[in-house]
Design brief:
single chain; mainly alpha; two-stranded antiparallel sheet; 7 helices; 4 strands; 5% strand
Length: 303
Amino acid sequence: MALPAFLQEPAAAQEPAADTHGEVFNLGDMIAHHILNSGEYELPFVGPVHLPAWDPIQLGGLTLDVSITKHVVLLLLAALMTFAMVMVATRTLMRQGMNTAPSGFANAIEAIVVFLRDDLCKEFIGHGYERFVPLILTFFFYILTMNLLGLVPWGGSATGNLAVTATLAIITFVVTEVSGFLTLGARKYMRTIFYAPPGTSGFVKYAMLAIMTPVELLGKLTKPFALAIRLFANMTAGHMLIFSLLGFIIFFGDLAFGRWLIAGGSFAFVSAVLLLEVLIAFIQAYIFAMLSAVFIGLMRHEH
């Protein structure tokens, strides 16, 4: 639909904005630069820094690229921040004494740990949940840190990379299947794949085995797939929405009648979305940890 006449003047206002060097601004490139992985990392007051690139490793017919990329840097940074956060909380607890209630930052961390342990691990995993508490806590704090890094200047969210979320989901898958095999034993574990409803016999039993076995196998694979896609899609969509709203300033900011109105409205919307993204960062970290605990509990208790 064509714009009204008063929006079409001057004609230059409809053209993409250009910088001082004459380069045309491209909103898609800006979004891709923030979301996609790359071989350089932009530092404040320094600019893009090229990361070391190493020759790929050949393993038979498989080629592995082990070069350092932006998302690898963010993964390592999130790991260091998570480790530092836990160490600060632990040292605070030790300094204040284990018999006294913690205060400040340590109190907040302890509240989250107790909540995840009692209302998530104990509730969904059941008997023997204690051994899985460190894994679930690591999932939550590590994913939360990565999510929040995507909301700070010169940052980025590694959870916006499908390879990262898929790797986390594969860890959950391996832990789920191995713990289920060790808990149920080989015979009961195989029943989770080759399944026939109790009470069936003869032709009906074999027919149900032929139908249900592919369904059970597919169910095992869709669980980690859902974990990976859910986290990746939510974090990527949030960042795309933020930069798309900021793009209104570039594309429509030259309109004389609404320059400040468009800029102010865009800023207000982006600020609201950023606050929502902080909440989503916590929610997505919790959902990943919760579903991991649910999958482990379902496998360990056959009934």
